[in-house]
Each structure stands twice: as structure tokens, then as C-alpha cells.
Write a structure and sequence with these properties.
single chain; about 325 residues; mainly beta; 4-stranded antiparallel β-sheet; 2 helices; 24 strands; about 30% strand; Gal_Oxase/kelch_b-propeller
Length: about 325
């Protein structure tokens, strides 16, 4: 779940819909329609990212057996650390070309299951962490238009194992990598020096629900003054990553229910206001969905609770934010 920013492009998820002989067209109340483009991309879109070449890179975990598309030219992935298939001749990543409506297989070597990533200023996608042999690795995909590009892998470049972390691009061109399962720290990539380490972030341990977590894949947004808005579980802070200091603590979201993974809500930074002058620039974050407290435990016991149908909206640039506006949806 590239995060990352986290926020990825869901438009192409319809590629994984079952095959129809006639294009699937569903009328929408506001106009427009859905159309089935491809019956099968060969790889499940656990993670996907729109590139600056108007192509989409899609990738999935590597430790669960073969995919539905072969690597090109008889290539095989020989990985003694793979938990399921040591020699695997199928691809676990593809690039979808919007213009030609076609996919080509890519070679991602280590496990990117629930890794995280973000796009760099030059358009490259950096994906960090994952599971098993990939939890301290970084992978870079530099887009191209001639089908010559593929994943590059950099082994053991992270200070900590990162699984279910979040990445965000910074003004200096680096990425900050925040959290992950059992990791209440953050670090930067690429490293500036060999001594660039990981740093404690107590907010992550404070938002960790024992045996449930509810603070994985935290929502991270760069605020207009350069600090980071970090939301985990049911609350958020404004964090100065340069000084390693919490600048502001925001109120708990109405109801106090968890919104982060595994309760799996989502968040977005809304369009900035007052960009043309006439006042201070205003930034707002919208957090939607999630699950009632205790839902994870209930699900493990066979009782499935409905997801939350509410959103919280907060002005993160407000010097003294009083709370979230509460919005319901259906």
C-alpha cells in the first residue's frame, strides 16, 4: 500500500474486474460511466502509482506464489529467501500504458508486501520496506517511454525494518519514512551521511493500541510552513522533523474511534485556500472512514462490525484548532 501518501490512484482498480465480452458500462448519477479496459493485468494491485509518463506501475507481494503473468525472455527470479517459491518465473509488478491499454512485466525482487513509498522530484518512484527479505530495502523505478526501465533494488539501506510505514517527500528532496509495525521511529531516505539514523517519535507508541495497533500507515501531509501533520489512530500532531519536536497537538477526532490501519480509513489534504493573497494560506485535512473501537478483535472472533460512515475535517493551519467538523456520508 504505496504510501505512502499516501494516497494512490484508484482509477485503474477496475482493471481487476472479471472479464466481460462486452465492455462493462455503468451509468453514474452525475454523468459519465465506467468502462472495463483490461480483463487481467496479471498482478494484483496491492500498490499502484501514476507516473509522469502517463503510465501506472502496479506491484504486489512476492511471497505468495506465482502471479498471472510471466517475466519476459524466460527470466526467473531466484531468491533463496522467498517463503513460498524459491525460483519464480512470474512477475510481481507490471507497468500499465494508458495510451496503448497494455501492460508489460517488471522484475521486483524482494517482498514489497505492505511497503510504502512516494514519488521523487524527478518523477522516480521510491518504495521502501516491506516484509521478510524486503523490510530494510529500497527500490527505485525511474519512468521511461521506451520500455527499457525496470525496478532497481538497494539492499539493507534502511536503519529499521519498515512494514506498514508511511513516506512523504520533503522540500529538500529526501523522503521521511514514519512508523511501521513495531517501529515507533522515523528516518530519512536517501541518507545524507552514513550516520543518518532513525529517531524516536513517542507519538507513535502513544497511539498504538496493544495487540491491535490502529496506528499503521499513518496519514502524513506537509503543512504550508514546512512542518508535518501526522495523524495516527484517532488524533494528530504537527511535527517539526528538522528539530525533532512536536509543535502542536490536535484534538481527538469526534467519537474517538480509530481511523488508521487496520481500521483502514483514509485521508486527503484538501485544495489550499488563499493562494492568491487576501489572507493567510489555509490548509485542511479530511479524514474519512475507519472502524468502531474493538472492531479488529470482534472480526477475529467472527463478528463483523460495520465501518464508520463519518469524516472529520480540520484546518491544520489554525493556530488554535478547536476540533474537527463532523460529516456523515452514505
Amino acid at each position: 500500500m504505496a504510501s505512502t501518501p499516501l494516497l494512490h490512484h484508484f482509477i485503474i482498480l477496475l482493471l481487476l474486474l472479471p472479464f466481460q465480452h462486452n465492455p462493462l458500462t455503468l451509468a453514474a448519477p452525475g454523468g459519465g460511466h465506467w468502462k472495463l479496459l483490461l480483463a487481467n493485468t496479471g498482478v494484483s494491485a496491492m500498490h499502484m502509482q501514476l507516473l509522469n509518463t502517463d503510465r501506472v506501475v502496479i506491484f504486489d507481494l512476492t511471497d505468495f506464489g506465482p502471479s498471472n503473468i510471466s517475466l519476459p525472455n524466460g527470466k526467473c527470479r531466484n531468491n533463496p529467501k522467498d517463503l513460498t517459491l524459491k525460483i519464480d518465473c512470474t512477475a510481481h509488478s507490471v507497468e500499465y500504458d494508458v495510451a496503448s491499454n497494455s501492460v508489460r512485466p517488471l522484475n521486483v525482487f524482494t517482498n514489497v508486501w505492505c511497503s510504502s513509498g512516494a514519488a521523487m522530484p524527478d518523477g522516480s518512484l521510491v518504495e521502501t520496506g516491506g516484509f521478510n527479505d524486503g523490510d530494510r530495502n529500497a527500490r527505485v523505478f525511474k519512468p521511461c517511454s521506451d520500455n527499457s526501465c525496470d525496478w532497481q533494488e538497494f539492499n539493507t539501506v534502511l536503519t529499521e525494518k519498515r512494514w506498514y510505514a508511511s513516506n512523504h517527500i520533503l522540500p529538500d528532496g529526501r523522503q521521511i519514512i514514519i512508523g511501521g509495525r513495531g517501529q515507533f521511529t522515523y528516518e530519512f531516505y536517501p541518507k545524507r551521511t552514513g550516520a543518518d539514523a532513525s529517531y524516536n517519535l513517542p507519538f507513535l507508541s502513544q497511539t498504538n493500541d496493544p495487540r491491535i495497533e490502529n496506528n499503521l500507515y499513518p496519514f502524513v501531509f506537509l503543512n504550508v510552513e514546512g512542518n508535518l501533520f501526522i495523524f495516527a489512530n484517532n488524533r494528530a500532531i504537527l511535527f517539526d522533523y528538522v528539530k525533532g519536536a512536536v509543535v502542536k497537538t490536535y484534538p481527538t477526532i469526534p467519537g474517538g474511534d480509530p481511523r488508521s490501519y487496520p481500521s483502514s480509513g483514509s485521508a486527503v489534504l484538501l485544495p489550499l485556500r488563499n493562494l492568491q493573497g487576501g489572507g493567510n494560506i489555509t490548509a485542511e485535512v479530511l479524514v474519512c472512514g475507519g472502524a468502531p473501537k474493538g472492531s479488529f478483535t470482534s472480526a477475529n472472533n467472527g463478528k463483523f462490525v460495520g465501518a464508520l460512515n463519518t469524516c472529520g475535517r480540520i484546518q491544520i493551519t489554525d493556530p488554535n484548532p478547536m476540533g474537527y467538523g463532523d460529516h456523515a456520508f452514505s
